[in-house]
Every structure is written in C-alpha cells, then in structure tokens.
C-alpha cells in the first residue's frame, strides 16, 4: 500500500504532537505530501455552543 497524501490534525496536545510526528515519518517513508490541519474557536462562547 502506498500513500500520496497524508493528513493529520493537531490541537497542540501531547498526543496530537505524537500523531504529527508519526504522520511526518510516514510521509517521508512514502514520499507523500503531508497536510497538517488545526482548527480553533476564536470566541470561547462559540466553542461552548458548538458542543
């Protein structure tokens, strides 16, 4: 199995940093593009309403 693009999300937590590192290693191994996504709520009230 080969990959041309690997996508990983991060929120800055320790576990997501590990996920980014693993995804980066996979991207190197498969000579794939790496896409790192991060989303946040600029307004704390909006974050609470979304849950």
UniProtKB/TrEMBL annotation:
- Where do the coiled-coil regions begin and end? none
Task: Name the domain of life this protein comes from.
Answer: Bacteria
Domain UspA: from-to ranges:
3-46
Q: Which InterPro entries match?
A: Rossmann-like_a/b/a_fold, UspA
Q: Which Pfam families match?
A: Usp
Q: Which Gene3D superfamilies match?
A: HUPs
How is this protein named in the record? Answer: Universal stress protein
**Source organism of this protein record:** Corynebacterium nuruki
